Amino acid sequence: MAAPTISQTRQDLRQRISRRIDDIVTGTVSGGTAGTGATNGTATAIGDIERYPTSPAYFIGAEITHIDSANTAQSRSITGHSFSDPTVTLTIAGTWTLPVSGDEYEIHRIGGRGFTFAQYNDAINAAIDTLADSYFTDSFAIPWAIEAGNNVILPRHEYPMPSGYNYIYAVDYLDQSPMTHNRLGNADTYRALGDATARTRLFQGFKVNQTGYYGWVVVAMNKVGSPTDNLTIQIHGDSSGVPDGTALTYGTSDTVDGSTLDEQLRYVVFRFDPPVFLTSGTQYHLVFVRSTAVNATNYYRLAEDDDNNYADGTAGTYDAVTYTGVTGSDFCFAVFRHSDRWISFKQRRSGVAGWEYRRIGTDFIWLPYLPRDMVPIRLRGLTAIAEVTTETATVPIRPEWVEAFAVDFLLSGRTGKTTSDTYAQGAREWARQTMARPRPTRPIPHNAIRIFA
Fold first, then answer.
1. Could you tell me if 106 and 121 lie in one domain?
2. CB of 324 within 8 A of CB of 168?
3. Residue 231's beta-bridge partner residues?
4. Which one of 24, 200, 276, 435 is least enclosed by Cβ atoms within 10 Å?
5. d(CA 242, CA 250)
6. Which pLDDT value is given to residue 425?
7. Closest CA to 192 of 36, 48, 296
């Protein structure tokens, strides 16, 4: 069970918390000036601000935060306050971005009490961090495939641990054999992808031996330099031995983040979701696409077999105009039927051989035995709830629990300064009464291993 999605944004929750200690005025601006150099800016405000005293200058020393249409916030002190019914004009210390009519504002630290905009946000994130040990989402990734399985001479047992996990509790492999493939063991050279216009794309012809839905393509490749764009595979029909230029229906894979590739050759897994329908014996082509322009420093390479070991297609290049086959060469790849059936490796326990998470210089997963070469591998684990960083971000935990913890952080002095408002006593008691730690979204599996990287 994943953590619930709550329709409460950071902005909504911050305003809700600050109302509990009577420390907010919010509304929209009708205009203002930006201010330059030693000249202070102004904001002409309308809305709830009108109910506050107009003399003496009630808001001098308070903090106003202007939130524009892009949800970018800027906070400044208020140094002046004038009133001409029904508009209040506030003078802002220093320079700030010109407010536009309709932009939102918040005023905090009213009358010398309360907290700043940043302190409220800090308290919200501190509350989320406190609850994070109880709140997880189930996560899975398919970051690599088995290399050199089936008891070959030099199988790979160590695989890099992907980032983002707090716990891992299962390692699975896809219960499928490839319907067509050319193994990495046949490779004897490389071919660059996306390093020059002559290699804007690469392609590989193939046929499958069963008609049906296909969900996975595995390709042996690596990165050169530090590319940061995305990779996809398109499946095209045939036109005289090369791609026909049009992806099949559902024939474009999910994206793979190019920065996650290794400098060492590895099998990279591309998922087709929903799966693509392929007909047995029909000529198709895998077209390898990078999302940005060619770059001679940061690019990719595919393992190439120039001994013509694959009989149902050929490798080729694309120069942004023409697809051209490379006679006698093939890339190293595999195509798998769609399947939701995964088989779990045993986990290492009490000396019994099984998968385990190791940290020796770097983080990796060690596998005790290998099923079939090129078979996709899936990691299952837990990812902790993350802090919110933007105004429109949804708070990932039930907001009343975050509110209770955040109020306690504020009023106990762990964030900012305590308020002198007498209402704070009531808010503190309310927070104390609701501090019972909520139950986790799900129990952590008994076999889960904590990831420390």
1. no
2. no
3. 256, 290
4. 435
5. 20
6. 46
7. 296
Sequence-distant (6+) residues with CB within 8 A of 175 are 339, 341, 342, 343
Greatest extent of the chain over all pairs of C-alpha atoms, in Å: 89
In this prediction, residue 180 carries a pLDDT of 97
CA atoms of 6 and 126, how far apart (whole Å): 18
Kindly state whether residues 379 and 409 are assigned to the same domain. no
**Quick one: CA torsion of 100, 101, 104, 107, rounded to 10 degrees?**
90
Residues 324 and 374 placed together within one structural domain of the fold: no
- The number of domains in the chain is 4
Lookup: tokens for 332: 């190293």
Q: pLDDT of 22-76, one tens digit each?
A: 888 888 877 777 765 555 666 766 545 555 555 556 788 889 898 887 888 888 8
- pTM for this structure? 0.73
CA distances from 268 to 83, 147, 252, 376 (A): 65, 11, 15, 9
Query: What amino acid occupies position 304?
Result: E
Q: Is the same domain home to 168 and 301?
A: no
Q: In angstroms, rounded to a whole number, what is the distance separating the alpha carbons of residues 49 and 27?
A: 7
Check residues 440 and 318 and name the one with the higher pLDDT.
Answer: 318
| Local structure of 375: helix, strand or coil | coil
